[in-house]
Amino acid sequence: MDTVSLCPGWLTPQSDAASPIIWPATASRTQGVWTVGGISVNDLADQFGTPLYVLDEDDFRARASAFRDAFAPWRVFYAGKAFLSRTVARWAHECGLGVDVCSLGELTTALRAGVPPASIGLHGNNKTDEELQLALHQGVGRIIVDADDEIDRLARLIESRPAGLAPVPVLVRVTPDVEVHTHVNIQTAVADQKFGFALAGGVALAAMRRLASLPGVDLRGVHCHLGSQIFQTDGYEVAIQRLVGLLADFRDATGQEVPECDLGGGFGIAYTPADQPVAPDVAAPVLKAAMASACNAVNLAVPSCSIEPGRAIVGPAGVAIYMVGVVKPVDLPSGRRTYVAVDGGMSDNPRPAMYQAEYTAVLVNRESDAPPQLCRVVGKHCETGDILVPHVYLPGDVKPGDLIAVPASGAYQRSMASNYNGSARPPVVSVKDGIATVLLRRETIDDISRLDVGR
Question: How far apart are CA 362 and CA 303, in angstroms?
């Protein structure tokens, strides 16, 4: 039977799902058993159960430091929406990064982790009064303004503050209409979407002029975010040209130069051996040169720049571990596909269903000499689209009770997890030097039931 037609062209029985590009730095394999942070997955599953998220602390810190060093003197903010806990916020701060947040919960987490408010940036396309009030009260370092209604809200809150307080630092989020090569649902700089002020028609310039005139506001600069899972620098280079043009227009209209420019995040990672992300030390010189050249062309001082990687720091540091419950071969006209059902699914990783995101998977609890078979790793939920890994070769003797690991699982999985079908969300455990530490405990059915106040 022809099985290749059931999967993408890059995937073959020889594809290396053990490629280091998709695993944390400390991951290794001995006689088929994988370890992360010096602890075997068998021991982790025995101690904490499955499904389970494992986060490699050394890998996280190394990636955070790599962005910090490559982009210096630019500032680097960790995008907390990828995954945030008090411990992770503390790691980011200890590595010299700021922390970006986009909700009351994320802001509270960063503050309770001890991140200095001046190192926090607040995002969001519909910030509530409660979020803005907490940011103003704590003195966060930057509020990224997203809409005219938000300017109204911010002006009212600032007006009600006691006299003599320092001006509130703000950046204007700009939509530069740059289309990058990624899924349409994670493109955030095209004109037809909910974020930011349009560059076209002078909308962003008008917002900048309005904010610059408001008492109690310190207009620091502009911000954009192109999207997520971006593998090239060309989109950033186009955005730089357009943002610098806006800064020059503002200078020409007001006689003022604003000192900051933030290019957002979106740096991609490898989810499969076929992915080829750009490394920080490759991207940084290109973007720095593009910024300097664009500013020189319009006789503008080079602003203080910043970026906001999230996925690129925490994504490769995480591994999801599942237990196999059902193995079901299905014969199709084009070949045989074996469905491998695990004890998680779209409740703990909705990305394949939402974005058609591709992952790979590996048998990690034992050695196998069985020939590879084409599999589809699926979850336990009542949805046909509950698919974790649509195409992967696993050993032909995979069976119930085996452990399957999905690498590159640190970003946008536990942070997007739900209680669909009444499922309790998995724990997150950090590993380092043979020691495992619970960052987020496993949710229980009692946790979920406490929210049900009906009779």
Answer: 46
Count of residues in the chain: 455
Residue from 182, 181, 204 nearest 191 by CA: 204
Tell me which of 2.40.37.10, 3.10.180.10, 3.60.20.30, 3.10.50.40 is the CATH number of domain 4-55+316-449.
2.40.37.10
Angle, helices 129-138/148-159, rounded to nearest 10 degrees: 50
pLDDT, one tens digit per residue, over 92-150 is 999 999 999 999 999 999 999 999 999 999 999 999 999 999 999 999 999 999 999 99
C-alpha–C-alpha distance, residues 28 and 26, integer Å: 6
Sheet of 33-36, strands arranged across: 28-30, 33-36, 39-40
Integer Cα distance of 127 and 145 in angstroms: 9
User: Taking Cα atoms as reference points, which of 23, 25, 50 lies closest to residue 429?
Assistant: 50
Furthest-apart CA atoms within the chain: distance in Å:
77
- Residue recorded with tokens 């071969």: 329
What kind of architecture, by CATH, is found in domain 72-314? Alpha-Beta Barrel (3.20)
Q: Which one of the listed residues 102, 224, 295, 382 is annotated catalytic?
A: 382
Residue 374 in contact with residue 7, Cβ under 8 Å? yes
Sign of CA dihedral 438, 36, 283, 350: negative
pLDDT higher than 50, residue 249: yes
8 Å CB contact between 188 and 227:
yes
What token pair was written down for 342? 């695990």
Coil, helix or strand at residue 389: strand
Q: Where in the chain is the domain with CATH 3.20.20.10?
A: 72-314
pLDDT of residue 9: 77
Number of continuous H segments (helices) and E segments (strands) in the chain: 12, 21
**Alpha-carbon distance 71 to 69, whole Å?**
6
CA nearest neighbour of 97 among 64, 70, 124, 126? 64
What lies within 8 Å, CB to CB, of 417 at 6+ separation is 347, 348, 349, 350, 425, 426
pLDDT at position 182 over 90: no
Q: Where are the beta strands (DSSP E) in 308-386?
A: 318-332, 335-342, 362-363, 372-378
Q: Using omega within 30 degrees of 0 as the cis cutoff, is the peptide bond preceding 73 cis?
A: yes
Please write the tens of the pLDDT for every residue from 69-92. Answer: 999 999 999 999 999 999 999 999
Whether 224 is catalytic = no
Pairing of strands 33-36, 39-40: antiparallel
